Structure formats: structure tokens, C-alpha cells
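Help wanted!
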Amino acid sequence: MPSQPDLVTFTVDGKEAQVPAGTLLIEAVKAAGVHIPHFCYHPRMKPVGMCRMCLVQVEGPRGMMLGTSCTMPVTEGMVVHTDTDTVAKAQEGVLEFLLLNHPLDCPVCDRGGECPLQDQTMAAGPGESRFVEEKRHYPKPIPISDLVLLDRERCILCARCTRFSDEISGDPLIEFKDRGNATQVNTFPDEPFASYFSGNTVQICPVGALTATPYRFRARPWDLEAVESTCPHCSVGCRISVQASRNEALRFLGVDNGPVNQGWLCDKGRFGFEFLNSGDRLDTPLVRDEDGDLVEASWAEALDRAAAGLSAAAAEGPGRLAGLGGARSTNEEAYAFGRFVRETLGSNHLDAQLGDGLDPRVLAGITPRAAIDDLERARTVLVWAPDLKEELPVLYLRVRRAATELGANLVVVHPRATGLDPVATHTLRYRPGAGTEMLRRLADGSGDLAAVRAALDEGPVVAIIGRPGLGDDPRLAEAVMAFAAGLPDAAVLPVTRRSNVYGAADMGLAPTLLPGRVANDAPGRDAAGILEGLASGDLGGLVLLGSDPATDYVEPQQAAAALDAAGFTVAIDLFLTPSAAKADVVLPALGFAETEGTVTNLEGRVQKVNRLLPGPGSARPAHEILEDLARRMGGSIGAASAEALAAEIAGTAPAYAGITWEALSWGAGREGIVAPGPEGSQPLAVAPEDHAPPPAARDLVLHQARVLYDRGTLTQAGPSLAKLAKEPAAYVHPEDATRFGIKAGAAVRLTGSGGSAELPVVLDPSLVAGTVYVPLHLGAALGAGLEISMEAVT
Amino acid sequence: MTRILLSRMEAHPSDSHTLARYEATGGYAPLRKALGMAPEDIVAEVKAANLRGRGGASFPCGVKWGFLAPAEPRYLVINADESEPGTFKDRQLLERDPHQLLEGIIISSFALGVHHAFVYVRGEYPRPARRIQAAIDEAYAAGYLGADVAGSGYSLDVTVHLGGGAYICGEETALLNSLEGRRGEPRIKPPFPAVEGLYAKPTIVNNVETISNIPWIVEHGGAAYDAIGPEGSRGTKLFSLSGHVRKPGNYELVMGMSWREMIYDIGGGIRDGNALKAWIPGGASAPWFVEEHLDTPVTIDDIASNLSMIGSGAIVVMDETTCMVKAALRVVRFFSHESCGQCTPCREGTTWLQQVLTRLEAGDGRDIDLDLLLDISDNISPGLAWPPGMTTICPLGPSAVSPITSLAKYFKDEVVAHVHEGGCPLA
Ligand SMILES: Cc1cc2nc3c(=O)[nH]c(=O)nc-3n(C[C@H](O)[C@H](O)[C@H](O)COP(=O)(O)O)c2cc1C
Ligand code: SF4
Ligand code: SF4
Ligand code: SF4
Ligand code: FES
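Answered by r_m:
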């Protein structure tokens, strides 16, 4: 741990203030309540001192010195002036220079109304222009990617966008070209700005030079209503501002939550708001009629049908019903779902995951558990997990920062190249099924792994561990956690992707858990067991809460068959998913930004989500639906309101004691509170065990992993992201291609445990020979098994 | 006539660039002497010589060397970017006596604990680049470079890099960025290159001419160098004399003569018997001198106290037929064209100055334009003082202000005439 930096005392405009040594002047003056105008400076990026707007005077041995406050660290006794005539003249001069060639098309500019250049001009700019020459001209906006447009006439050349792409996201696809008055931001020939993080550049551009297609010309800032919330697209839980006009969500902006996203969002999160406005949203209940078709129904009718069907199944005996879902709900909805399944349905068969995650006890109870912000202090980071850039993008940014800015060792273990490889100190590759051997060799650390092992022995270590692909057994991940927990000063972050899966586990939505990180000693069935039970007739019915096993279960075809066989199914969802389409009753729920509550991210941080939109048609909050069903079935789950549920959670779930909406809405609590909070405890403490699966030797194995833009329901429901999903392909090692006599671009037929598909071949030398990689959810359903057969299609 | 730099090429114009001639005229003896000295003693001799940098800023070479931080590796970078209009002295040193520079590089590197030196040559200088590369090749073959320099056990490699055609890459930190493969943009100082330079390692950047003096200083001792010329301007200086003089060219001179002698004796006077109007005493960045300065001395410090600078030693003489608005436009256009574009005041301001001057020169000027030019200038170089204040990262932006202040100071009438006569009164 670095020691606290020393404080230095300095004077600005006659006021004395104290700040840590090394603080940049532009930040330091805030301590004295002074604001310095600026354009290129951004607190999360290295200063470049380019715009020259932040000029101030500093007293020096040779008189007053003019300098940029964004590049000067404060020193003891420094005397700074921001209010002299010289400073005012210099700043006004810079502003005038910036405006010379600015097109001043504010009335048609997305930024108009929230533009730093406009604001600064209004506050301190010249009343009229002294410039009578011809302005610089460029063709009006040019697309630099599928989502982002660049208007070079508006650009003030502050390098925020180029620095972000280079320093922060690590895909330097935009750069300045030419020089002087002809300097312009541009992409490289034939290489679009195809970055998973491109939207951040739009947000930090201090003018309207960069605009995003989903928001362009859609609204004026003063017409927008906004609430702060938490991104619903993955378990990182980035802080966002949800912005809407006339009940339509128009954009998400990143909010700087220091310990989590530091202001950044991935493009899936940022542009993923579109699903909220989708015309495919369910807006009325549906029931199955005599012909077997789903038809619209009133709430009363649908709830009656649902309650009757569930009651009939429940009457067949205890444990005849099951619940799947809750990993996309709020904690309050998840808690209500848990009470509903356990109390109303009288069952412990309950799972929020679909066979693609980790042991829920590990998710809820692992010790020592890492926080994302531990990456700021880590000497070594071990990532044996999904490709973070594809699945948990902003966590990727934080790890990247640790490895670049902060100089940590980074060890990445994965079946193929990942987004972090370019900044990793060591990368190790293995074939799915052979992970145990990899782990044994790594733990042993001899031979060519000695250097990797030496890096891992430098603490503090943050180990980010999950299942790199479907073919990796969850027990392997636990064995890796057990190994990592033994590294010096180590903490483990178990990772899985679905947005509130951690919250669901904490709310007891798992066969082995009860709310508040308490073990359930009478475990029920997990997702696999539930689907088996439905197929065999051991179970009589199912309630789905925002869960689509027919798509998302590791063996989708098995899940679909189980749902077909199920006696009675109720689906509560936002969309008529393939699973909901098989239900007997479908109940439309309100979703993100339409309900209030809390969610818990992968480090156990509880954050607030807020309501801004009314939602479609007669859709209702899930907890109300569940309460109504419970009442019709002769009970109550006490879910009077989300707030009442929150109070109940804070009062009864040990790890969540004291984590109230109130605490999360003000002051430091707005960063979220990591459970267990100050008043809470965690009864369940899981030290991971090394019960690694035996190695599976096969000629050809299948590696399947998610990509950021897939054909998932939420992604496909928004036009901007839907078009970014790639066509499915088979990634084949060049040696295997030779062995099987196939060429890049040719078609192969792959047959796996759960299906078969014909795919074009892409050569991928980053695989270990004998491995075929197929991205998940792009249209090729092969099943979860390791074994795969491949043949050339002629 | 005192000769330090040009003696060999003057005596042996056909082959002064070859190793054979260099060795035959005493070359590489200073190197052998230096390799027998303690490195810090060499630094001490350079300090004692009071050699001031010849790249423009006239910073004492030995003092700069003293700032070199101890971290390893360290680098020596020779600035051969020579791109300022009117400067053509380094070219001659590179083409005609490359071994003299190379020997200076080897001695300096040894003195500074450097094992890799770079020569950054202006992109438009293919022949000088070939000559220095040929000299380096000869030196490797002869054992003056490589793993064991002249049998001393000391190792040194020298790499030549050709620029891409940007004046700004002569600014030392832009040069280092360019060498690293980045855009040629000046860095914010501090840190100075001596602490964090090439690849963030301690680096000394020196001009070609500066380092070409080193063999002589080692051979004859710092005191001998310090005995030449007036205080503050020791040794000899190469002046590139151009413009409307009868005898333009490079001259190696001991400083201290008057400007009158410089222009009328050394330069042979003004062409066609015309009258002198003004001259740029030290490169395009320097404020202009006029008649009243003719009897002031040509020394580094006297030029500075008369509010201009010696710069790299480029003297551009203008006679009575010269349109001063056009002259100012030429200089401003150069800087505007060469601005790297990082800083708002330089990128936008120099272009604006150019636009206004273009209009004035074309006869479309307004009465307010001179004041406008001065106020734009003031926003680039606050106070319009000398040495110039800066709202910019590097001095290039403020350099474009020198012709404007000179115009306002000495040739206001000519500007007014342009406005009122709708163009140049001399045309
Ligand atoms: C815009 C600009 C251009 C410059 N161009 C050159 C150049 O072409 N050659 C040069 O030696 N120094 C040039 N300099 C000066 C260098 O930055 C640096 O001071 C010099 O190379 C140091 O060498 P010296 O100490 O031996 O003079 C330039 C400076 C500026 C601000
Ligand atoms: S596009 Fe925007 S962020 Fe990028 S340099 Fe221009 S003004 Fe700055
Ligand atoms: S990283 Fe996850 S939480 Fe953050 S913006 Fe992307 S999808 Fe949303
Ligand atoms: S003053 Fe001009 S040349 Fe120098 S850094 Fe700024 S923009 Fe570039
Ligand atoms: S904010 Fe300091 S120079 Fe731009």
C-alpha cells in the first residue's frame, strides 16, 4: 500500500488551500473554490496542455509566469493567480481563436445546450467576431464507424477522443493527421473506428464534433429528463444517467463512479437503451386458448389462469413446482421471487443461472473476495476468465489500466487470444478440457512457466476467475480460485456475466442459498435438475422470471424440449422470448428504468436503479405480479412495494443489513455499498476447493464463448446494436485446417453434443491445435459438450 | 583568420569528407586523447570552453551536459534538422566534414556515458544524410565505432534518421517524438530531455555545429577556446549570410565585429548599389534590425540586449526594394505552415495573421488591421516583449510574432500605405 502523499499548502487568488503533493493545479484550485475553464483536460486521462484554455499565472523567481494549470503540479508555497488581467486576456484570446474556425451551427448541433465551448463563450467570450476571413471547411460529418460520425469543422482538436482510444481503451483507431491549421481527427484508411468503447469519445468530446447515430437529432438537452441508475447489460454495474424525452429513452451517459466505471461505458451498455423502446415489448398479458394459441387477455383473467394452473400442480405434492430466473431483475424483485417460489409454490427448486455460471455459493460467499478497485493497488492481476473485453467490457478497461498506467503484472490464461493479451506480461493458452493440466503446471511453476509463477508471487494479487468458455467446467474455475487464494495478499473476483446474477444469488435464488448469503441446508434442484424434472414429469410446473432457457441454457434444445413437456408454465418477461412463447400464461413486466430498486454487481456492490419511464401498455412490476399471484393462491409474500421489500431485505438478509435505499441515494452511498455493508455480516464463507475435473483427452474439442454483440434478445431489440452482430464462423487452428484439408473461407460442418451447423472457416493461430472456436449466440447452436466433429463441406 | 570548423574543407575541397583525408589532417587524434581522459574531465574542458549551443538558444553546452540525469541508458541526439529559412551551415558541416562531427559525437558520447547516439537529419537533406552515413560506415570499418571504440573497450553505435519534412521537428522534444515514431509535436517541459528524453531516458540534444567544435576543444583545451572571441561569444561561429548582399554564403567568424562590417565588408555590401532597409539577424524567428543597429556589435549578448537574437546565425539582408508587408507575410506563412497544430493560439493565430497579411498585401487592408495584427500577436505572445512571452507549448507560435512587431515598430508607414493605396507602394 502506498503511503498517503504529503500535503502541500499553496495560494490561489489570495486564498490558501491544502492538497496532496503532485495534484495538478487545475484540480487543486477546486479546494479553494476556484474554477479554471478548460477543454482538453480530462481528469481520467493524461494532460496534454493543448487547448491552452486553462492558462494561469504563477509567481516565480523571474516574475509572473503564464502556464497551463492542467500540466502543472502544485508545489509547496506556490502562489497562483487566475484572476489577473493577463490571465483574462490570454483565456479570452484562446476562446476567440477556437471560435475563428468554428462553424457556429449550434442550432442544429446535438451539443447545443450542453456544450462547454458554448457555455464558455456565453460566460466569457467576445460579443462579436473580429474574424472576416474565410473559415476552414470540411465535408460535413463523415461516418467513422457504424455508430459514430465526425464533423471536422466543429472539432477543436483537443485530443480527448484520440487519447481515450489510445490510453484508455487500447484501440488507437483514430489519430490526428496533417498538421497546423490542417490538423484533423481521422481514421486510418480502410479501418473504421470499430471500438467497443467508441461512445465514450462522443460523451467526452467538448463540442459536437463527434455524434452518435442513435441520438443524432433526436432531442435538445433541455427537453431531456434524467435519472441516475446502473447499466443493466452486464454484471460490472456501470453507473449511468438514463435520459428520456416524452417517455422515450433517448440515451445513456456514463457517470463517473470512481470504484467502478470511472465514467466509462461500453457501447453495448451505452447504446443498449434502445430495447426499452422496442415495439416488440410485451404490453398485455397472454393466455393459451383452446387451439393452443397465445391470445391477449385481461390481467384478471391471466392471473386467474396462472394461479389455477400453479395451484393444481402444487396440489400434486410438495416440490412439484420450480422457478427459473431473476438474474436480470432488481434485488427486490429477486427477493420477492424467492419468497414466491419457496412460500407460495412450496419448493426449493430455484435457480437464477442456466448452467453457464459458477456455483452460487462461490458467487455469494467467496473469501477473500476482491473489489474492482483493488486493481488500483494490485502488483499482479491473474485473469483466467471469459475474455473480459467481450463479456465485461468496463472491467477490461480497469484491468487494462492496472497493466498499463499502474504497471501491474498481468497474466492471462485462456483458450485463445483475448482483448487483454496486448498489455499482458504473460499469456498462456490451453485446450478446453485440459485446464486442469494447465493449472497443475502453473502451480508447479517450473520450466517455461517459472517466469509466470514468479510474477504471480508478487502481491497484492487480484485474481479474476470464471469460465473462459462453455467447455470449461465450473469446478476448474474453483480449482483456479483455490490456487489463486494461496498467492500472496490475494483476493478473488469470481466472474460471470448476467447483469444481476450476484444480486439474485444474494437474494437466495439458488437451490443452495437463502437471502443474505446464508446456506440452505435443504437444497433443491438447480437449472439442470429442474429441466430434467420437467422433461421426466417429476416436476409439474414452472415459473420463469425474465429467463429464457430455450435460448440461454447451455443445451438450448434440451431446455426447449423440457419446456414443451412441462405441465404448466408461467412466464414473466419483457419480450415474448422463445421460452415465453411456450408458456401457458405470459405476464408482461416492467423492466429497466421502469421500476425502482437495487442491483448487486460482481464485486458485491449494491447500487440503486431508478425509474424514469412508464413502460409499455399494462406491463407491471414483477413483484406486484408475484404478490397478486400469491394472493390468488391463498397467501401473500408481503411485497406491498419495492421499497417495502428493500426494507425487509435490509432487515432480514444478514449481508444486506443496513443497505437501505436511503443510504444508497445520498453522499458516499451513491457509489454503492459493497455487501456486507458496515452493519452486515456474511454467514457463508466459501474457501474454494481444488476438486478439478479430470482431464478430457479428445482429438478435437469445442471452445464456445460469448462476444459482445450477439443475437441475444436485448441486443437484437435495438437497431443500432443489432446490426453489429457478426455472422457465425468456425475458428480453426491452421494445423487442423491442413489436417482436415480445409481453407480459410471454406465451409465446414460441425456436429456437437446439442446440434450441428455449417460454418465458414476463419484461421486462428492463437488457438491450441485441436481446438475449434465458435462464438456463442450468433446462430450456431452446437450444445455445450466438449466433443466436436468437423468435416469439410464440398 | 581563425579556423576551427572549416579549415579542412577549405584546404581540401575535393575530399575533406573522407576518412583518409580526415586522418591525414590529424583527425581522430583528439578521440584517442579523449579516450585516455576521465569522462568528467572532458565535460570540465567543455564547460571551461564556454561553448554556447549553436542550434538557436545559445545555451551553454557544458552546463546542459551537467544536467544529464544518471539513469541508464542515456542518449545523445544530434539535431541536424536545419530547416529555418536562411540557415544552411549544418548542411556544409555534414557534407564536407562529416568525420569532424562524428568525432565530436564519439567524444561527447564517451564523456556523457552514452552508448547509442542518433543523428536526426532534415528530410530534404538526402546528400548530407548520405555523407554522414558514409562517414559512420567508414568509422565502423576503422574501429572508431562499435563494440570497442579505438581499442578502448568503450562501445558506441550511431544511427542516422531522416526526418519527414517538418520544421517543427527541429525543436528538440518534437525531434525526440519523431525519432520515437510519433507525431512531431513538442512536449511540455519540464521534464527536460536531459532528465526524460528519448524513450523517456536522459538525453542530450545538441546542434551539429555545437558538437563539431568538440574535437578542437579536446585537442587544444577548453581554455584555448575560451580565449577566442569576446566574453559570452567565445570560439568561432558560422553565419549563413543571404538576401540582398553581394557575397552571400557561410562564414566562420570570430564574433565582435559591428553589423556594418558584417554586411558591408564580409557580405560585400548591398546588391546593385541599393540602400539597406532591414535585416533579420538570427533566423526567421528573430525580430528585425534596421539602420540604427548598424554599429552595434555582433555578439550573442549584444544582439539579445538589442531585443533580437543570434539564433542559428542566419542573417537575411533586405534592400530598399523589399516590400516589408510581403516580407512579414513570407515569414508568417512559413510559421503557419510549419505549426504542428497542437496549441490553439499557434494553430489558429498564425493562420489568422497570415490571412490578414495576405489581405493587406493584396490591397484589401483596413485601417484597423495593424492593431488587429498586434492584438492577435499579443494573444500568442502576451506583452509582445523580448524574450517573448508564450501562451503556447513551444516558441514556434511566438516566432511568428517577430515580423509583426518589427513591422509595427519600423515600417508602420508602409502598412498604412498598403491600406490607403490599395496595395504595395513599391510595386
Ligand atoms: C521551432 C524550433 C525549431 C528548431 N529547429 C532547430 C534546428 O533545426 N536545429 C537545431 O539545432 N536546433 C533547433 N532548435 C533548437 C533546439 O530545440 C535545441 O535547442 C537545440 O537543438 C539544442 O542544441 P544546442 O544546445 O547545441 O544549440 C529549434 C527550436 C525551435 C523552438
Ligand atoms: S473530435 Fe472532439 S474530442 Fe476529438 S479532438 Fe475534436 S473536439 Fe476533441
Ligand atoms: S461494462 Fe457492463 S455494465 Fe458497464 S456499460 Fe458495458 S454492459 Fe453496462
Ligand atoms: S507553439 Fe505551435 S509548433 Fe509549438 S507546440 Fe504549439 S502548435 Fe506546435
Ligand atoms: S485544459 Fe489545459 S491546456 Fe487544455
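OP: Thanks! One thing I noticed: Chain B is about 40% helix and 10% strand.
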